[in-house]
Amino acid sequence: MTTTTAGAGLEPSRRTVGPATRPGLVLFMVCTAIFMLMLDATVVSAALADIRGDFDASIDGLQWVIDAYALPLAGLLLTLGSAGDRFGRKRVFLGGMAVFTVSSLALVLAGSILQLNVLRAVQGVGAAMLFATALPLLAVAYPQAHARAKAIGVYGAVMAGATVAGPVLGGALVTAFGWRSIFTINVPIGVLIFVLALLRMPETARHLDRRTDWLGSVLLSGGLLAGVLGLTRGNALGWTSGTIVSLGIASVLLLTLFMAWQFRTPHALFDVSMLRKPGFAGIAIIAVAHMATLMAASNYLAIFLINTMGFTPLQMGVRLVPVSIAALVAAPLGAVLAKRVPTAVSLPLTMGLVVLGMWLLGNVESTDAWTHFVPGMIIGGIGLGAITTVNQAAALTFASDANAGMASATFGTLRQVGMAVGVAGLGAIFSHSARAEAGRGLDLLAAHNVTVTPELRTQFLDGVAAGAGTDLAGAVPPEFASVTPLLTETAHTASIEGLNALFTLGTVFGLAATLVAAAAFAAGKLRATRR
Fold first, then answer.
1. Are 46 and 166 a contacting pair, CB within 8 Å?
2. Where are the alpha helices (DSSP H) in 396-483?
3. Which of 49, 127, 479, 524 would disulfide-bridge 37, Cβ 3.0–4.6 Å?
4. What's the CA dihedral at 114, 36, 182, 236 to 10 degrees?
5. Per-residue pLDDT reduced to its tens digit, 185-201
6. What are residue 399's phi and psi, to 5 degrees?
């Protein structure tokens, strides 16, 4: 067992993670925690349809079920990564497991969409505490490069597996026990890992010279919140309304102030020196883009399979198995790729697979079966699995062990920014396109002397925009039974239109991000060569 030597800002620690401790046990605890928090980022996709029905939630409410969890991850990861470096990563890990487990229990008892979303934000805080300490704990537990690479490969495979297994496991739980069960399952696992970590996880050295940058945390969180809120409310309030414009300006201003503050404060959340390192910009762009495209789109694909194609949550989850298998196979291969192929090549290449997958998922026709999505899921899943591992390995190349928390949290933050912005942005285009197509369909019915009251029109358009799909037929009042088939057909067409618009936007954004990242890698290499 190793001990640290007291020095500038270091407190001696009697129980420090090192080669003589049980690194396999640390890997098990960390990977179990990561599996839980990543699973909860995607498992809700199988429950969104039931949540919408139970709480009569709008598309905004459903988006916040996802974004309320992702935003604390994005806004607090840097703060909590530095807190782990300063106060000890075991302490932060235990606190995160406690918050995550208790909030999961509270989610089981939520009685409204508002309560659900508030509790999801609390759960996201706990997840941020776990995520911020996970990779740094592994970095210290596996100091040798070869052993660390293997551990990161396992870690990346667990992340990829949990991310894409969410719909499958969630579908099984929702079908068998209802949507609340997706949170119930966290409680016994969380208690087990908390007790095990309390008793057996060694503490890392504490760097007491670190200070928490609370102002930076407020500026970052506020900027992200304003931006995502503007994206989710843009359709309802109008994209040129004073509220949406103000939110956009506030977001840009707060994020600009955050970056300016990071250059000035001696205790920055973000190590600005990383900006000058070759490859950082390219890795950052890919970290945001792969989450903002295929990962964010998978939530709306799950809703489409349930509400428009008529599958149960379990049947939906089974039909998403191709992307799960592809990602699981590709994740360990990504570790090999990270060792043998330069990041400047491997990341644009794997992101290109994600973009190709997005493109293949689109162009849905009304007569297509669910098998239309299989090629896109396989190719996109391969890209996702490989990117997850390569990104995690790249994160640790930008800092020493003392700064591992900050470096890991930086790329984790970017991933969650991508997820939050992607869910909001893709949801906005889905809602807008589906509503517009449904409106045209209702106008066509009116032209054929089919009477649709203003109340029914509003209810129908809101339901289609929220992803209710052909399930709307069951909510049509009895007096409109004669036009139910026509309304069902209209909802089906509108949902397909929304989904195609979503995949088109994701493909264009992903392609642009891939090209910009490749250019950033090339520019970084050129600067390094000149030096």
1. yes
2. 404-447, 454-465
3. 127
4. 30
5. 999 999 999 999 888 88
6. -160, 160
